Amino acid sequence: MNRIELDFEACTGCGACFDSCFVNVFRWDDGAGKPVIAYVEDCVECNKCELACPVEAIRVIPDYAGVYWPPVI
Ligand code: SF4
Ligand code: SF4
Q1: What is the rounded CA–CA span in Å between residue 65 and residue 62?
Q2: Which end of the chain has fewer CB atoms < 10 Å from its terminal CB, N or C?
């Protein structure tokens, strides 16, 4: 399964990652004013959240287990 690391210290709560994820991996913690990685199993490694974060607080770590390259034809 892919992993997502979120640096809560660096996060400013801008919401860009939340808005950028089209498969809704994130939920929002209203109390903390920060994102929550709620459904990491749905992550498709598009990296939009990582690229959207203005303070580089998110890192997407793909799981390549079981992925073969080059493809076997
Ligand atoms: S890498 Fe893409 S699919 Fe995964 S959490 Fe970020 S925006 Fe969502
Ligand atoms: S884009 Fe970065 S700074 Fe903004 S809420 Fe997400 S992790 Fe925090």
Answers
A1: 9
A2: C
d(CA 35, CA 4): 12
Residue pLDDT, tens place only, 15-44: 999 999 999 999 999 999 999 999 999 999
Ligand 1 centre and the CA of 69: distance in Å? 22
Query: Which burial class, exposed, middle or buried, applies to 64 when counting CB atoms under 10 A from its CB (0-12, 13-18, 19+)?
Result: exposed
* Signed CA dihedral, 36, 41, 42, 45: sign only: positive
Q: Using CA atoms, how far apart are residues 10 and 44, in angstroms rounded to an integer? A: 24
Instruction: Confirm whether pTM is higher than 0.85.
Output: yes
Is 47 close to ligand 1, i.e. is its CB under 6 Å away? yes
Q: Which atom of ligand 2 is nearest to the CA of 16?
A: 1
Residues in a beta bridge with 5:
59
